[in-house]
Write a structure and sequence with these properties.
Distance between the termini: 36 Å
Number of strands: 21
Largest sheet: 6 strands, mixed
Helix content: 25-40%
Radius of gyration: 28 Å
Strand order of the largest sheet: 8-9-7-10-17-11
Strand content: 25-35%
Bound molecules: adenosine-5'-triphosphate, 1-O-pyrophosphono-5-O-phosphono-alpha-D-ribofuranose, magnesium ion
């Protein structure tokens, strides 16, 4: 690895912990170096530091990910966010909805801060590089699609899915074949596998960008005579170009398949994907502050995502007492709320005296069930129904937090 830093920069090198520190430059601080470090001299206005960054302890795997053995010492927790593409804006929007505001000075600057999390810095990276850097220890947390975690994480146990459903980037990885010619009547993976055409000399040719998951899926499904080719994009063209018989690619709306006369088949889905919060197990167990940070991010995410699908509904109901109103409300299946309805007296002033004739009922209802709930409220005498969006639901305990702790053996 080679980096350039301004002259007169104070460097601290710790030989006990394999790290270089540039205190004045948070951008480069610290520089991971697990092997030899040499300062090769001055050139123009820069010092050039060369480190051979892959030591024996860090072996590259096929995808360039490295298996680091210990965490590099640094002060900040690092969160990787997609630098561009489909997931970039949605990741920032989600954090914003959780009151975590990423301050990026300009879109070409790849480091940013979140004032609400002062011990955390954001690094913008391509999704596949986020996974690679989680594995190499250069990032601690990241937001990426589950497809990328599976493809580039390759089942590495250091990767932990902290939240598997961030509610954006939905798609699935699927095998697709032409809907014409010899494939016209093929509807399932089983039928495809049983076609007499595929032999050792003439295997089923699959074009895919998923060079780890593709072969694994075929092997797991016992499909023997298969070969793979890869391309960076527009894979749907491969069958019509005569390059492949099938493709294995991401599908969301299905439009690209349809427009290229391709179809999905039963049993052909490799995985379902959406954006996820991913962490390095090593970072969570060994890096000071990482667990606390992930707890706070998780709490905010869960509170927001849980509330996102719900409305608060308030209505007035005539009744003799709160229990009687509760009995009536409980007869309706959509009106139970989170724990049960909150019912409180409405104090009216009548002829100079305070009286209670109405009770206010407050419930949370799933957005999908709103109209049904309003109808049920009316059926039991509800009136003046007010509906407002819910922003956060903080539970007593974040369910995924206890899962994470047990996953970490804590
Ligand atoms: N229709 C879709 N096609 C592809 N990816 C999708 C789709 N819908 C959601 N996604 C998600 O978005 C991610 C792709 O994002 P992006 O567009 O930035 O990647 P890319 O441009 O293919 O990446 P790169 O250029 O680094 O190869 C996928 O990994 C997946 O998780
Ligand atoms: O089901 P759909 O909504 O049509 O989306 C699926 C398509 O989108 C992605 O391609 P992308 O737009 O990233 O272009 P690329 O293949 O050239 O990278 C993916 O590789 C599919 O081709
Ligand atoms: Mg495509």
């Amino acid at each position: 690895m080679s980096i350039s830093i301004p002259l007169n920069t104070t460097l601290q090198y710790s030989s006990s912990s394999p790290s270089f520190h540039v205190p004045s430059l948070s951008l480069f601080s610290p520089i991971p170096s697990t092997a030899a470090v040499s300062v090769t001299g001055t050139r123009q206005r820069c010092l050039r530091i060369v480190t051979s960054c892959v030591s024996n302890a860090q072996k590259s795997n096929q995808n360039g990910a490295t298996d680091a053995v210990s965490v590099v010492r640094r002060e900040q927790i690092r969160l990787g966010l997609p630098s561009k593409g489909r997931m970039a804006a949605d990741s920032l929007d989600l954090l914003k909805d959780c009151q975590l505001f990423v301050k990026q000075v300009n879109p070409r600057q790849y480091v940013a801060q979140i004032p609400q999390l002062p011990n955390t810095e954001v690094w913008f990276q391509r999704p596949k590089d986020i996974v690679r850097k989680l594995l190499s220890g250069d990032l601690d947390l990241g937001i990426v699609g589950l497809d990328i975690v599976s493809e580039f994480g390759q089942g590495n146990e250091d990767l932990i899915i902290v939240h598997e459903a961030l509610n954006f980037g939905d798609c699935h990885l699927s095998l697709a074949i032409p809907n014409y010619g010899i494939f016209e009547n093929i509807k399932s993976l089983k039928e495809l596998a049983q076609m007499p055409q595929w032999t050792e000399e003439r295997p089923l040719r699959v074009a895919t960008g998923f060079t780890y998951l593709g072969p694994k899926f075929m092997k797991d499904n016992g499909i023997k005579h298969v070969s793979f080719s890869t391309a960076d994009g527009a894979l749907e063209a491969a069958p019509a170009m005569g390059i492949a018989d099938a493709i294995l690619d991401l599908v969301s709306s299905g439009t690209t398949l349809k427009e290229n006369n391709l179809k999905e088949i039963e049993g052909g889905i490799v995985l379902e994907s959406q954006a996820a919060l991913v962490a390095s197990r090593r970072a969570l167990t060994e890096r000071k502050g990482a667990l606390e940070t992930v707890h706070e991010i998780l709490e905010r995410l869960e509170a927001h995502l849980k509330a996102d699908g719900q409305f608060t509904v308030v209505a007035n109901m005539r009744g003799t007492d709160a229990e009687e109103v509760a009995e009536r409300v409980k007869t309706q299946s959509s009106l139970s709320g989170l724990q049960g309805p909150t019912i409180s007296p409405v104090y009216c002033k009548r002829d100079g005296k305070i009286s209670i004739e109405y009770y206010a009922i407050v419930i949370c209802v799933p957005k999908k069930a709103l109209y049904e709930s309003v109808q049920q409220l009316r059926a039991v005498g509800g009136s003046g129904v007010l509906v407002s969006p819910l922003t956060y639901i903080f539970d007593e305990e974040t369910p995924r937090w206890s899962q994470l702790l047990s996953n970490l053996g804590l």
